[in-house]
Amino acid sequence: MPAAPDSLMRALRRHVSDERVLAAIADVPRDRFVPPELREEAWENIPLPIGAGQTISQPLVVARMCEVLELTGEETVLDVGTGSGYHAAVLARLVRQVHSIEVHAELSRQAGENLRRAGVENVSLTVGDGSRGLAEHAPYGAINVAAAAGGAIPRALGEQLAVGGRLVAPVESGDDQRLVVALRTDRGLAVTDLERVRFVPLVSR
């Protein structure tokens, strides 16, 4: 199983300081999560198409999103927007259990195959509307949203986050799309804006 090339890890270290996150990125074989014709580009620090109008996120963005969640290793995490399964696989190295939801059934099926080939066992997959979350496994110690919400974090996701838990998501406002991190407190969500990003829209049905 190939490890992440040194050039990619050097690029990530300029922006990410969490050693557990960096180790997870290095360990997860990204080439197992891209279409066969794109495997030569799998370790580039770029997003790549995976079908159904979706992409596998840039490794730097995946690493940053994992870092701002400040994971301890004991969490049950909700991953919204399974895509290829890559982000879920990285999270799986960092937490106890990942529940990942994807609106496109074919992508979820392929993600299951990708995760199996990569030897990832602590991820469960569901086909459904990620904006509604997965209430049956809530509350979550952390929530990762890998698609852009319009205007604000969906209410259902905030409600499924445990007190003290953190949620990271891209949120779009006009032409501006930013990563935000939200901390669940007794009074609700405390939201902090982070860097600009570019994600596909969060599909709600």
Structure in a nutshell:
This protein is 25% helix and 31% strand. It is α/β, with parallel strands linked by helices and 205 residues long. The chain has a single domain (6-196), classed as Vaccinia Virus protein VP39 (Rossmann fold).
How would you describe what is shown here?
The protein has helices at 6-13, 19-27, 59-68, 86-92, 105-117, 155-159; strands spanning 48-51, 54-56, 76-80, 97-102, 123-127, 140-145, 149-150, 161-173, 176-185, 188-196. Strands 3, 4, 5, 6, 7, 8, 9 and 10 form an eight-stranded mixed β-sheet that branches. Strands 1-2 form a two-stranded antiparallel sheet. The longest helix is centred in the middle third of the chain and has 13 residues, at 105-117. It has six helices and ten strands, in the order H-H-E-E-H-E-H-E-H-E-E-E-H-E-E-E. It has 205 residues and is of the alpha/beta class.
